[in-house]
Each structure stands twice: as structure tokens, then as C-alpha cells.
Amino acid sequence: MAFEKMIKNAFEESRNNCRFGDTLEEITEIQDYIKNAKKIYVPNKNGIKVEVLNEVLNEYDLPEANILQINTNTADTSRIPALAKAYMALDQSDADLIIARGRLGIPGSGSLLIFIDNKGRILTAGTSPSHIIHKKTIEEAVYSEACEALEKIGFKKIEG
Q1: At what angle do helices 138-151 and 48-59 cross, to 10 degrees?
Q2: Burial tier of 69 (Cβ tally within 10 Å: 0-12, 13-18, 19+)
Q3: Which residue(s) pair with 9 in the sheet?
Q4: For residue range 64-73, what is the model confidence (pLDDT) as tens digits?
């Protein structure tokens, strides 16, 4: 089943009250979309998050991401800053896939690392509590959020 057809079918199932949860085929389509992404961007002011994300992507045998150097400070004024950063990057690039990280919601709500497709649809995400709670470095937090996001859609680390 093709990615767009899968999305349309799930929409039709929901509309017709016959949707009973995700299927293995749907998860496989999301995996294939990520595996086949040619232009993966991470909106970021510096390369720290990109370096960590590429380490994770490599461990899951996925294509590397590139930095998209844009100022995302205004995203912090939105209700879901991580998603706002992702949409800003989508609007300013020709990406197949955006991986963005930022605050989940209001200050103190923790972090959200989100994967979106080229139409702004959420593919997967990982979260962390507020830094004051987990006390991890930014690198450790990004690493664990990215692993959570990929494993939640069935990716496994490659043996090596």
C-alpha cells in the first residue's frame, strides 16, 4: 500500500466508523517513508542536535539529517513550540522529512522531538520531562527522545 493511499484509507475507515486501530501495514508505510527520505532537515541554531540525531539515525540504519539554520525563537511563543519549529522548517525548505525538537507546551512542560512529513503530518515523536526533572545533558535527552520516537514505530537498532 502506498503512503498516501494508506492515509486516505485510514481516514475513510474513521469516517465510516470502522477504524479499529493501527495496522502493521500502516507502520511499515511510515517506516518506508522515513527510510526513503532524501532531504531530512533539523531546524537548529547550532549543530549539536544534528550531530546527536545523526548518531541515532545511523544506529537505526537511516539516512542522515542536515542542519537547517533558521532562527526558531518565535516558535516558543506558540502553544506547541516543537511543532511550530517543525512547520517553520517545512515552510523554509524542500524537505521530505523534518525532525524538530523544542518545548512540548507551556514553560515547564518538558520537551518534544517530532518527525513530520513533507505535508506537515506527524509521523512519530519522543518526549522528555523538563530538564530540571531529568537532569540529562541536551545530548542525552535528544538521544533518548529520538530512540523513543523511532522505536515507537517499530525501528530497531542495527547490530554492530
Answers
A1: 40
A2: middle
A3: none
A4: 999 999 999 9
Strands of 97-103's sheet in order across: 66-68, 40-43, 97-103, 111-117, 122-128
pLDDT of amino acid 134:
92
Q: What is the C-alpha separation between 57 and 54, in angstroms, rounded?
A: 5
Tell me the three state secondary structure of residue 138. Answer: helix
- Residue the block writes with cell 547490530: 159
Q: Is-contact 39 94, C-beta < 8 A?
A: yes
| Distance of alpha carbon 87 from alpha carbon 80, whole angstroms | 11
- Cα radius of gyration rounded to whole Å, the chain: 16
Closest C-alpha among 67, 90, 87, 92 to residue 75: 87
For residue 111, which of 124, 101, 121 has the smallest C-alpha distance? 101
Whole-number Å distance between alpha carbons of 35 and 63: 7
Q: Which residue has the cell 541515532?
A: 56
Do residues 124 and 30 lie in contact, with contact meaning Cβ atoms separated by under 8 Å?
yes
